[in-house]
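Quiz preparation item.
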């Protein structure tokens, strides 16, 4: 047993003599797991009533003969050309109202009966043929679900979804506030999908009726989930036990992954950061993926070993970065480290995408050597980290409804983006070494001492009371500007539900261009704030930070309210990173939750607790220079077997805390919450 290592393999693109060379190189790189069949639908079903499994048979047989394990895809990530020609309903209609023809991928209408019928049948036949094969350790449904459709079939599906949600037109009209602009609906068939032809102008985020658009975002996420459920049910007819998943895309706005989580047996996701300076952003995405199923470990289903090929600029991973980022995934909960792709394709849009094996098929390239070295390291480590959980006492709330509602709102500002705010607060927690869970607003909060809820725009499901309970028992709650403004229908509250807990009210706000700065002074230090400045009126809360300029100079920008035995913080301005860090440091310090390397800005720490109770401390240096580690971050490295006191650039060390004499008893105590049950190892 060990961390699974390998990735997306597409041998159907090459002659079979290349396959033999591939497997020889896989052996050299310690590759043990292959994801196959992701885009084979046109091969396995070349016609409406024709199925040909010869290619997939050969791929699976060759991998199994080499002793490798297989994550077998249903191949439904892109439909075949014959299907679009014979059944035009399977292609999407876009936001502008254009009916698409065959081409690209993510081009299947989730509401098309033809698409659903064919996708279910191919999944059923694949599962029937390969169920029971001991090489298959997981099923992979679809691929990177995404996109949206606005066709008549989706319009009909949307109306049925609305009937189920609201029950009556009167309830729907109330939720959507349709007395505005004479929009009252008197028949379900009057309702149109919100698009460029109906409620929108200047793109998908500019809508006349936020309630309609918000519900269509919810519906489309559910419609694609129905496709996934259809295929999973077809697989279960032949295989009741092997885990089923699909590959998520991390911080991806169009699909509410919280709504999907229960239907995945384990979470997997594809990590393609926008640049090579995104360590904090990747940490947020890892934490979000781990939090989808209550802390259960996940698979890193895809990452590039070197470069991507889908952006205007595609920076190369510098020496050591692939290893560092792979171990970062493990530190945050990954039980598999997989790549896209195993061998570089020779044509089409991904021919320049990075691969373990390049076009030349050489084993002496830098990338291949680094992949092989990491494979050897993972093999030597064995099962040490498998099933380990994060013992978090800090929670960060993440909410797709708030994300959608905030960014389709026509006020107070278009410049504040939900993900920017969440990332800023997560980054501060990450840099200060807090082990944290990123969780949905519906998750229990009983086990957390600190709950951070940035830009919590929408309040639903009794959340205000549950946050108040955290503070009342002695915890700390922190939220920010634009929080607690709307209900689940995106209608403004008459009385904001978080006001009693926070001890404030907000009557006015000032939104400015990005170049405008209003400094905020917090405990004697001054920080920049931009974009949005709320005029906070304390009603019992203590003022911690004040504005420096404009007519509201000297008024509250940051407050702290006593509530029971704990505190509730409110940050009413979009502080810069230093300001956010100052506030978060004070919150964490109250609970003794600063990490052991909190004062080393480029050093990341994370703790995982194994099913046997062993505690593992990961230390990662994201900086370009060596770092002298404090005693709490030094010890005998499980990877090298040697004591580590200095960690080089892109360096990684893993310690068994109980065996590391340099780790203080205070640090052990601060992270000593018990782990939950581990994911079943496959």
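Solution:
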């Amino acid at each position: 047993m060990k961390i699974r290592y390998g990735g997306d393999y597409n041998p159907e693109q090459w002659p079979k003599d290349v396959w033999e060379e591939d497997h020889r190189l896989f052996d050299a790189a310690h590759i043990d797991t292959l994801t196959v069949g992701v885009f084979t639908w046109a091969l396995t079903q070349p016609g409406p009533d024709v199925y040909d499994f010869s290619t997939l048979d050969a791929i699976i047989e060759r991998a199994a003969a080499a002793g490798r394990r297989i994550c077998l895809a249903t191949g439904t990530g892109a439909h075949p050309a014959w299907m679009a020609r014979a059944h035009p309903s399977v292609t999407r209609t876009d936001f502008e109202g254009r009916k698409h023809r065959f081409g690209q991928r993510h081009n299947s209408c989730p509401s098309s009966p033809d698409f659903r019928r064919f996708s279910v049948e191919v999944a059923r036949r694949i599962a029937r043929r390969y169920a029971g094969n001991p090489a298959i350790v997981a099923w992979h449904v679809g691929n990177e679900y995404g996109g949206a459709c606005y066709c008549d079939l989706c319009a009909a599906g949307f109306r049925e979804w609305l009937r189920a949600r609201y029950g009556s037109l009167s309830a729907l009209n109330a939720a959507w506030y349709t007395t505005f602009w004479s929009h009252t609906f008197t028949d379900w068939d009057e309702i149109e999908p919100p698009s460029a032809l109906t409620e929108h102008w200047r793109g998908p985020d500019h809508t006349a009726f936020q309630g309609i658009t918000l519900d269509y975002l919810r519906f489309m996420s559910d419609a694609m989930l129905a496709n996934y459920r259809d295929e999973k049910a077809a697989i279960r007819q032949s295989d009741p036990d092997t885990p089923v998943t699909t590959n998520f895309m991390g911080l991806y706005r169009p699909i509410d992954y919280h709504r999907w989580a229960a239907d995945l047996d384990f979470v997997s996701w594809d990590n393609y950061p926008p640049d090579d300076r995104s360590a904090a952003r990747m940490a947020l995405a890892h934490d979000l993926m781990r939090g989808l199923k209550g802390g259960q470990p996940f698979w890193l289903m895809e990452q590039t070993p070197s470069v991507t090929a889908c952006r205007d600029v595609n920076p190369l991973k510098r020496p050591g970065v692939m290893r560092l980022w792979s171990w970062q995934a493990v530190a945050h909960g990954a039980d598999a480290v997989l790549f896209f792709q195993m061998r570089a394709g020779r044509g089409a849009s991904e021919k320049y995408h990075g691969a373990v094996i390049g076009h030349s098929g050489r084993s002496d390239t830098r990338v291949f050597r680094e992949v092989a070295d990491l494979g050897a390291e993972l093999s030597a480590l064995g099962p040490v980290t498998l099933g380990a959980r994060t013992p978090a006492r800090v929670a960060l709330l993440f909410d797709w409804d708030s994300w959608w509602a905030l960014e389709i709102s026509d006020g107070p500002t278009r410049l504040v983006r939900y993900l920017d705010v969440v990332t800023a607060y997560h980054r501060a927690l990450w840099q200060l070494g807090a082990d944290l869970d990123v969780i949905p607003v519906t998750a229990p909060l009983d086990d957390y001492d600190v709950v951070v809820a940035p830009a919590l725009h929408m309040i639903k499901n009794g959340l205000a009371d549950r946050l108040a309970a955290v503070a009342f028992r002695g915890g700390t709650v922190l939220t920010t500007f634009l929080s607690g403004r709307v209900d689940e229908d995106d209608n403004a509250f008459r009385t904001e539900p978080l006001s009693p807990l926070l001890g404030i009210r907000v009557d006015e706000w000032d939104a400015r261009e990005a170049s405008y700065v209003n400094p905020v002074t917090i405990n004697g230090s001054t920080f920049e704030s931009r974009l949005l400045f709320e005029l906070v009126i304390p009603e019992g809360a203590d003022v911690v930070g004040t504005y420096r300029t404009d007519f509201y100079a000297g008024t509250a920008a940051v407050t702290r309210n006593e509530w029971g035995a704990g505190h509730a913080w409110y940050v009413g301005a979009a502080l810069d990173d230093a300001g956010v860090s100052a506030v978060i440091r004070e919150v964490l310090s109250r609970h003794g939750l600063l990490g052991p390397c909190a004062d080393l800005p480029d050093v990341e720490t994370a703790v995982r607790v194994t099913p046997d109770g062993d505690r593992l401390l990961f230390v990662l240096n994201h900086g370009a220079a060596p770092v002298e580690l404090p005693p709490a971050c030094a010890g005998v490295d499980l990877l090298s077997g040697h004591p580590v006191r200095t960690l080089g650039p892109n360096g990684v060390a893993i310690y068994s805390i109980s065996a590391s004499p340099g780790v203080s008893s205070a640090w052990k105590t601060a992270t000593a919450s018990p782990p939950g049950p581990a994911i079943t190892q496959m």
